[in-house]
Structure to design on (364 residues):
């Protein structure tokens, strides 16, 4: 059997860094009610938009997956597709399973001691979460590790990746078709919410799957656009300005432009490979551990609330700082001590079984 081409291992450092910042925006989004007594209302308003970071994740994921795996899956046939799925499974599933088991342990303790209600969220949803299908339209709300709803929808995007490549192939032949694909997919998201009667970006159980697939495909088209357009520093700066104006438009007029704003920002950052704050080692490191941050923070918040939160009483800033430090420490420990070793172990087993040596792909 002929081997498929090796996946690329390109890492665009500004995109890695922005992923870390977005993950912490989600952390603060879930913490915002406990922070409310201590921060200005203007800052609280920014934190309340942290759920929009998930849209950035979807577009960014489509872009980077197309960058690193598009050629392999597009030309590698069944072997390339199978290898892609194995690599994505090794990348996302071990940590997802570990955190889910952490929730199960807490739920069993809650049931045993009768001090919490997590166990009442339903073991059927837990079973669906084990299979990563919990947000495929089978449930009416996200439960257990709530942020993992987006991992579930991305799992379907991975399964559909060859189909999305095929559907977008005609657009890659013409620059204007790529622009139209990016704009059309981006502008389709919020009208979908209107049609289903839900405010953007809420009701993730009902709308999250479309939200993911449309923006994942948008990111793939954006990668094609990135390949076709010339690299110009002034154009990168212009796109940052466009992203800022679109963000202002969303805030002031609730305009349906959030995905387009994220696309402009991603394209600008993908061209910005020179010196800058988003290639600083600390921010790049935050990006590399961001999956652990995203998946673990909600379990830590659940435990933190049980230990320190009393209804009607504010949580002190030192305790809030303790939680944030715990998230950072857990993210680092999980990434270096579990996530990467588990990924390497699974890929080594896959390599040994199929008799070919492959490099571990660090890209998202």
């Amino acid at each position: 059997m002929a081997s498929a081409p090796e996946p690329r291992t390109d890492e665009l450092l500004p995109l890695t860094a922005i992923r870390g910042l977005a993950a912490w925006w989600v952390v603060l989004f879930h913490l915002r009610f406990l922070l409310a007594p201590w921060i200005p209302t203007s800052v609280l308003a920014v934190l309340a938009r942290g759920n929009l970071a998930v849209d950035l994740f979807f577009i960014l994921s489509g872009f980077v997956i197309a960058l690193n795996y598009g050629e392999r899956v597009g030309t590698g046939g069944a072997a390339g597709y199978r290898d892609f799925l194995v690599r994505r499974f090794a990348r996302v599933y071990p940590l997802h399973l570990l955190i889910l088991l952490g929730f199960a342990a807490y739920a069993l303790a809650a049931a045993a001691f009768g001090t919490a209600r997590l166990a009442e969220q339903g073991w059927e949803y837990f079973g669906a979460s084990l299979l990563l299908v919990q947000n495929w339209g089978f449930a009416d709300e996200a439960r257990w590790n709530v942020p993992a709803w987006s991992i579930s929808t991305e799992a379907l995007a991975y399964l559909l990746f060859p189909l999305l490549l095929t559907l977008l192939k005609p657009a890659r032949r013409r620059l204007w078709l790529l622009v139209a694909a990016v704009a059309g997919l981006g502008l389709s998201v919020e009208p979908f919410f209107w049609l289903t009667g839900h405010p953007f970006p809420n009701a993730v159980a009902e709308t999250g799957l479309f939200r993911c697939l449309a923006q994942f495909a948008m990111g793939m088209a954006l990668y094609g656009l990135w390949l076709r357009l010339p690299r110009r520093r002034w154009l990168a700066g212009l796109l940052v300005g466009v992203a800022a104006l679109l963000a202002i438009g969303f805030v002031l007029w609730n305009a349906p432009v959030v995905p387009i704003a994220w696309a402009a920002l991603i394209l600008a950052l993908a061209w910005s490979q020179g010196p800058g704050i988003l290639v600083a080692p600390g921010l790049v490191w935050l990006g590399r551990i961001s999956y652990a941050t995203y998946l673990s923070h909600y379990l830590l918040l659940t435990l933190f609330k049980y230990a320190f939160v009393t209804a009607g009483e504010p949580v002190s800033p030192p305790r809030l700082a303790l939680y944030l430090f715990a998230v950072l420490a857990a993210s680092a420990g999980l990434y270096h001590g579990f996530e990467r070793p588990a990924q390497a172990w699974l890929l080594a087993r896959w390599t040994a079984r199929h008799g070919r040596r492959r490099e571990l792909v660090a890209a998202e």
